[in-house]
């Protein structure tokens, strides 16, 4: 399982990729196509959900019982 720092790093990279309007980049003979926006958005949402689940504090319950004293 990935650590929170790794997930946050992935999240930043995805946000940067989504903010960049270029969908394809070419370097010499090589070409790279990026995912459509809806896939990036879904991946970002999933990472945000995972980070929230890992940083959430456990819920504690305190049960109080009383009687009238009779």
In short:
This protein is mainly alpha-helical. It has helices spanning 4-19, 37-55, and strands spanning 24-27, 30-33.
Description:
- The protein has one domain (4-55).
- A hairpin with a 2-residue loop joins strand 1 (24-27) and strand 2.
- The mean pLDDT is 85.
- A two-stranded antiparallel sheet has the order 1-2.
- It is built from two helices and two strands; from the N terminus they run H-E-E-H.
- Helix 1 runs antiparallel to helix 2.
- With 70 residues, it is mainly α.
- The protein has helices at 4-19, 37-55; strands at residues 24-27, 30-33.
Write the SSE topology.
Layout: H1 4-19, E1 24-27, E2 30-33, H2 37-55
Antiparallel strand pairs: 1-2
Helix pairs in contact: 1-2
> Major sheet, described briefly?
2 strands, antiparallel
Structural class: mainly alpha
Uncertain regions spanning at least 5 consecutive residues? none
Shape category: rod-shaped
Oligomer: single chain
How many domain regions?
Answer: 1
